[in-house]
Design brief:
By secondary structure, this protein is mostly helical. The chain has 4 helices and no strands.
Length: 98
């Protein structure tokens, strides 16, 4: 059984791997933050920021899909789960949190 490990051939592939790892770790951080401290979205149900929570969870989901390296076939899903979408959702979540 011959198993070959593919090494990155250039710096672009290497930086892509680091960006995927960074986004994956960022998504894990958002997941832990939402699980451990859900009160950051508001102290009570009357003061809860549902839109901020939704955008943070969308950022987390898109980050997991991009960070793992999954590439959807349908073009719309590619945009929804792209690295740009991760940061757009994150910024929108921060805006709605303020």
């Amino acid at each position: 059984m011959n198993i070959e490990h593919k090494k990155p051939h250039n710096r672009a592939e290497l930086s892509l791997g680091f960006s995927r790892m960074f986004v994956l770790l960022q998504s894990l951080g958002i997941m832990v933050l939402i699980t451990v401290a859900p009160r950051i979205f508001g102290g009570s149900l009357d003061n809860y920021h549902h839109s901020a929570a939704m955008f943070f969870m969308m950022s987390m989901s898109a980050g997991f899909v991009y960070g793992i390296g999954f590439k959807p076939r349908f073009w719309l899903w590619r945009y929804i789960f792209s690295i740009a979408a991760v940061y757009i959702y994150l910024v929108l979540g921060l805006i709605f949190l303020m």
